């Protein structure tokens, strides 16, 4: 059920205040310590952030995609590591179960994910399986009333904190492509599951990724998401369609915040006897950034509304993710430029946000993968029209 306009506006306003008063002031601390403070995680739980997308019957807020996008645009204004803390529970770490799980799987896991008591993580990528997600090599061999998992998953966001993994593994070795892949809900701590050491990253300090290794890891047959083999790739794609809209919303929010930083700096900084904001060459950077951020907001909200109306938005989600992630990269780069020498110095946020933003063009599908998805859909449509 969509929220009434007043409640929706209040929710957005609450998130904006949380970001301005609680998150932005802690950005340097989080980046320097490479850790998320426990009090901030608790406040995120109290605000319901872990359960934004999970149905109310499981303790979540049950937001529509449009409402989720509006909230994420606000939270996305803070350094991306903050959003990352709860975002896997909202998106890729819960939606496999929420979209395709059995009633038992939903009842067992969604309440813990919604409250933030469990951190959910999505284990698709492998050392040899990145963009070619259908070629998963991790195996899940049926053995009586169990499956035995073997393989390594790579760069798994929130894995060091996860209580539950959605794992894509090949149940049918005879089928080499996407059709042989199944999805499993695997609890952390099961024998045979271990973690690599957290990776040192370019940015987004405070958010953690590591390998997840399965070595003859036995999970009960009930862990198979939806109870049907061979559906895992499709589950992953459905999860990513939604995840890409979420990422696009986060990019939009971050761009809007960076524009505030950029112009805010330029009105205070004086050169040649006046504020640098007076220089038209810089004004061009502000104007391009604003127009692109507004276009991104409109694109994301339009795709989100269409998803809420039941349309297939795979192509629109890729368009939004591609545009918004490339856009925030440009905006973050202009912000460094406007800051001049200060843009290269750690004590200012410009260089951190520039590094943080770089990941958006890569995870949940690179820009090049989004282009492939968009072009494939357009070509199929054209062939359909031409009867080819
Ligand atoms: N929703 C539902 N089903 C989908 C789908 C979607 N969005 N996209 C594809 N499928 C289905 C197809 O319809 C097809 O089903 P059938 O076999 O019944 O016809 C099946 O899945 C295979 O689809 P396709 O042939 O398009 O798969 P490809 O192997 O060509 O892969 C891409 C397609 C490249 C788009 C996919 O591998 C991808 O998204 N890669 C990027 C992965 C990624 O984002 N990784 C980031 C890490 S996870 S944070």
TrEMBL record:
Gene3D superfamilies with a match to the protein in the record: Acyl-CoA dehydrogenase/oxidase, N-terminal domain, Butyryl-CoA Dehydrogenase, subunit A, domain 2, Butyryl-CoA Dehydrogenase, subunit A, domain 3
Q: Which residues form a coiled coil?
A: none
Q: Name one GO biological process term.
A: branched-chain amino acid catabolic process
The protein's required cofactor(s) are namely: FAD
- The Acyl-CoA dehydrogenase/oxidase C-terminal domain covers 230-378
Record family assignment: Belongs to the acyl-CoA dehydrogenase family.
Pathway in which the depicted protein is active: Amino-acid degradation; L-valine degradation
Q: Does the record bear Flavoprotein in its keywords?
A: yes
Q: Where are the transmembrane segments?
A: none
Q: What keywords tag this UniProt record? A: Branched-chain amino acid catabolism, FAD, Flavoprotein, Oxidoreductase
Q: Where is the Acyl-CoA oxidase/dehydrogenase middle domain?
A: 121-217
Q: Which GO terms describe its molecular function?
A: acyl-CoA dehydrogenase activity; flavin adenine dinucleotide binding
Q: Which InterPro entries match?
A: Acyl-CoA_Oxase/DH_mid-dom (IPR006091), Acyl-CoA_Oxase/DH_mid-dom_sf (IPR046373), AcylCo_DH-like_C (IPR036250), AcylCo_DH/oxidase_C (IPR009075), AcylCoA_DH/ox_N (IPR013786), AcylCoA_DH/ox_N_sf (IPR037069), AcylCoA_DH/oxidase_NM_dom_sf (IPR009100)
- Name the UniProt record assigns to this protein: Acyl-CoA dehydrogenase
Domain (Acyl-CoA dehydrogenase/oxidase N-terminal): give its ranges.
6-116
Against Pfam families, the record matches this protein to: Acyl-CoA_dh_1, Acyl-CoA_dh_M, Acyl-CoA_dh_N
């Amino acid at each position: 059920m969509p929220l009434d306009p007043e409640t929706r506006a209040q929710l957005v306003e609450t998130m904006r205040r949380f970001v301005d008063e609680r998150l932005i002031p802690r950005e340097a601390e989080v980046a320097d310590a490479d850790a998320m403070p426990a009090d901030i995680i608790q406040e995120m739980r109290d605000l319901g952030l872990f359960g934004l997308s999970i149905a109310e019957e499981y303790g979540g807020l049950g937001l529509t995609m449009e409402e989720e996008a509006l909230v994420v645009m606000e939270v996305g204004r803070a350094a991306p590591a903050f959003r990352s803390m709860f975002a896997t529970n909202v998106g890729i770490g819960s939606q496999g179960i929420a979209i395709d799980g059995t009633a038992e799987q939903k009842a067992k896991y969604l309440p813990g994910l919604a409250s933030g008591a469990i951190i959910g993580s999505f284990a698709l990528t492998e050392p040899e399986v990145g963009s070619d997600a259908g070629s998963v090599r991790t195996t899940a061999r049926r053995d009586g009333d169990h499956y035995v998992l073997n393989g390594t998953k790579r760069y798994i966001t929130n894995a060091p904190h996860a209580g539950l993994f959605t794992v894509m593994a090949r149940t049918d070795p005879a089928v080499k492509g996407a059709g042989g892949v199944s999805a499993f809900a695997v609890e952390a701590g099961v024998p045979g599951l271990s973690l690599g050491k957290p990776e040192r990253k370019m940015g987004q300090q405070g958010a953690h990724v590591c390998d997840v290794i399965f070595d003859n890891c036995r999970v009960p047959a009930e862990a198979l998401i939806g109870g049907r083999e061979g559906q895992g790739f499709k589950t992953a794609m459905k999860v990513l369609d939604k995840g890409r809209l979420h990422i696009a919303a986060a990019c939009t929010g971050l761009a809007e915040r960076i524009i505030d930083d950029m112009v805010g700096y330029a009105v205070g900084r004086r050169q040649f006897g006046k504020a640098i904001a007076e220089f038209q060459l810089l004004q061009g950077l502000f104007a391009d950034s604003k127009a692109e951020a507004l276009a991104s907001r409109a694109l994301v909200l339009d795709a989100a509304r269409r998803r809420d109306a039941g349309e297939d938005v795979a192509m629109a989600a890729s368009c939004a993710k591609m545009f918004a992630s490339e856009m925030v990269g440009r905006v973050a780069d202009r912000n460094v430029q406007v800051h001049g020498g200060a843009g290269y110095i750690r004590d200012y946020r410009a260089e951190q946000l520039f590094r943080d933003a770089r990941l958006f063009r890569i995870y949940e599908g690179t820009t090049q993968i989004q282009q492939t998805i968009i072009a494939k859909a357009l070509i199929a449509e054209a062939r359909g029209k031409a009867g080819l």
